[in-house]
Protein 1
Amino acid sequence: MARHQSVLWISSMRQVINMSLNKLILNIALKIVDILTFWVKKDKKRITFVSLTQSHLASDFKLIDDLLKKENKYHIHYNLIEFEKNLLGDFKYFLNCLKQLVEYKKSALIIINDNNYVISHCKPQGTKVLQVWHACGAIKKFGNEIKRQYPIRNYDAIICNAKAWKPVYAKSFGVCEEQVHVTGMPRIDLLLDDSLQKKNKEEFYKKYPMCVGKKLCLYAPTFRGNIIDGFKIKSFDFERVESMLSDEYLFLYKFHPLLGDVKVNSSKAINVNEEDLYTLFTVSDCLISDYSSILFDYSLLNKKMIAYIDDIDEYDKTIGLNVDLRKDFCGPICKDEEELANAIKSENKDQRIKSFQKKYMYYTDGKNTTRVIKLIDKLMNDK
């Protein structure tokens, strides 16, 4: 036991040393690039979208970009990559960080959807940053609320879905509550667009005819870990749950994009990792997740939600919760496969869903994107 703990400690120390060395090299390289690009001038009309989790415009970014282009008031640029946790991915990330710094020096406003080391470490003077966080909330503690490799700072504005998120986001992103703006997330406009979702539903059934007439259970959990240490997944035994359900039920599974194309131990469950999440929301009869913020999005559809969490007490102690699902969740919490199967079969509807929606997802008027554009205009015009 003692030897095992010693090995773990040595491994952990090696990891810390490697991270510190990598960070030192990156900081030196950023400083050199900063000096060599002293001549770069800022374009007061330039807005740059930056992401490490998507190589093309999608979701909130696409909706914002479309409306900005329609107004045609700004010069729009992009720095979009999908980070891969391997040696080549690490090298690409390193080079992209250097490229980011130059982009930031040229831009009046940077729009990001994840935390960003370059901004937190060396944001250029006169450049503003809008954080369009990739989630509709945060069940688990994140950002500056937890132990991390660097402190998050230098954001000028963050958008969120409801007042309940203002203190959480302020602490997590290192800003004042006044810098957290309740606009609603743009992508919610799509989720609540009935005609669009009807079209998406029809296309889904054409592609997956085996789903017609089935009760579809969507499993979409979050990930464990982070971009530095790597990502992990914690799941349930699909075959065991399926053995306790009739043939009318069918599982769809979609894991977090950072986990890659994960497979599960089932010959029946359908891999929908490449499908649009909101389309899957529309076709599914229930959602099974854990600490993922998609529970907030899904709640707007008034369908059954199930939290499969077999480690909530330990998770609360080690990571921490912003939303205590044991008290505030509008659905069953399952800790093993038998509880999960029973929850799926249950016809009981949780009456707390309306209060859950109102507390965490304030705007449902289809105008979230418009409110974000107004915030962008203000950031661009304020001196």
Protein 2
Amino acid sequence: MERTQELLVNMGPQHPSTHGVLRLMVKLDGEQVTWCEPDIGYLHRCFEKLSEQKTYTQVIPYTDRTDYLAALLNELCYVEAVEKLFGDAIQVPERAQYIRVMLAELQRITSHLLALGSMAMDLGATTPFLYCWRDREKLYSLFERITGGRMLYNYLRIGGVRNDLPEGIIGTPQDGEDKADKTIWGFINYFDSYVYPEWKALVTGNRIFQYRTKNIGVLTAEQAIAYSCSGAVLRGSGVKWDLRKNLPYAIYDRFEFDIPVGQNGDSFDRWWVRQEEMYQSSRIVKQCLEWLAENPGPVMAPKMPRVLKPPKGEVYHRIEGARGEVACYVVSDGTTNPYKVKWRSPAFTHLQLMPLLCPGHKVADIIAILGSIDVVLGEVDR
């Protein structure tokens, strides 16, 4: 009787397709995966414990370094959580609210561009990855003018934002591709007319890409809910749940946008949802630009003290991050430092799907599944 022996393979932690220092332990029967287990902890930096040693304002730069590809979204979650601790004592100006939402959606576009570009490159398509960097550079130039930073910002503040938008950066609805790195209107018009259609034609409609992703890593709606999935992973399985719509925070209840959902729950659907979400983010940014152009005003709550001492209490706040539901639990003991900060990372939750989705597929399909989940190890390990 012929017998075969399973082969145990380590993928990572130094591997270009594991999106950070992630180790996957994989058992193979020939080319077929029979078992897969993630091993994390290589990037642990004690973010939550360090927060106890800092003032409430000093914690903001540390949030940038969890999901470092969507830093502004992390800042938004944290500052809104602390503002909840103060109750009605802090009234964030309306202009600051619109700036926050606009930058959050631009940040979502940059994050999704890299998710799509890196997944395509993982599967052998190098050109889309170069295109994603080309377009992200334009947004990074805008972020640098607004915040002073290209990737990590420390821009949002408890009570508003650090500074108003630079003069002329909003632009006009007539701005075209030549101003894509100079005005926000220029980038949005460039994205709608060129970037979004290009991705649909170059990658999403490519037969080879579809062959590598369709019916690969299928996650049913029931499984997605049972595993506490969120974001594009949950919506890719057909569950229409987006915190911006279902439990609006900030001022998201003022905007018109749709929630894209997949049908099959496979790697292709998770890709497709992120592609469509970029277009919906563009719609939200346009509405913000129209309001901001007509409504000047303050960007910080009045009479904010330099050192904050929220009353004793605790708060749990969650937002729709680039990778799913980002949440922050903050406990105040009435002093200048948080007593406790706990971070909920969607990437940590989604990484637990690997043992479920990989068995039965070929070893090369692991890369497609991991890319479609879109993990960032900075927020997994924290």
